[in-house]
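To: structure desk
From: M.T.
Subject: fold request, one chain
Message: Could you run this one when you get a chance? Sequence is below, nothing fancy, just the single chain.
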Amino acid sequence: MEQASTPSAAPDVFAIPAGPPHGPLSGAEPSVMRLHTHDIDQQAEKLQHWDQSYVQLSPGRFEGRLIETWFGDIHFFREITNQVIHERGCSRSGTRTFCVPLAMEGRATFRGTAWQRDMCATLGGDAEFDLRTSTRLDVIAVSFRSDRLAEIAFESGIDPSRLERWLSSSCTVRLPSERVDDLRRMLIEVAMLIDGHSALLRHPGVFASIEAAIYEAFLRLMAESVEVCRPSGSYLTRRRLVNRAIDLVAAHPDALLTVGDLCRLLQVSRRTLQLYFEDVLQISPLQYLRAFRLSRVRALLHAEAGQLRIQDAAARWGFWHLSQFARDYKRLFGELPSETSVMARRRDEAEAVTRT
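Reply: Done. Structure tokens follow.
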């Protein structure tokens, strides 16, 4: 961990340069995306400008919620999930994202460091993120244009070395308790306003005011003396090898690589691979392979919406003992493969009726 140097006292009020309102025309509904789903792949795909994939690791039926909107250049979203998930991907180029947890149950790690409720995770555009979520995670994320954020921060008098520390790192940052509580309250109020279909959001002035308030809140955060948490070099080595193993499995679906295959391709022993997976993801390589392949079968059943036989979908990912497959599938997802197929078909039928 690194302790940031203490700069001169931060100003009490930050000046946000005035600009034209970016919200909707008066009387028009703002563009807000709301999602409530039991499909983990849909949850991953719906978020705008994020290239990401989710693999469910804990047993039980997945439930996710997502609300998303824009305030000018600011991308604002709240995501709630109820299972342990391995999330990988990257955010939009030229952005700086801050993730503030509202609720966490269990252990979470972000890019190799512990992520706790009193911490903010920050990520640069194009930087790879690697997140193992807690059992339940409720988080609000705010993405800024990096150049715009830097410009406003500089004009507001934030120490340049402090600014560089924030804008050049992808890490977790421990925040003073009073600062994180204030930030969390403000973000929750904004999220509730969005999710509650408030008529206030029809007014351009409200959108502009919220945009300014979000900038001010995060400029105050960047002016703080904070504890920056970074993973050790040995952990980064372990995480890189685990990610290489996962990439090999994803890139060769027809090969159906085994743990032994991965050891040979990566030139490591079984014990090393076992220890690395358990350290990074808290599960064994075999458990991860099973969860990954089950998730791919589930994605197939959703995509084909009843047009593909369950045994064929299972066989594509190497499952030949169908009764054991069905038990493992229900244990992980809280539903039988047949139920997934039926729900996917009903979803497509409902969407077809809506289009007509």
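Reply (cont.): Confidence is low (pLDDT under 50) at residues 1-29. Let me know if you need anything else for the meeting.
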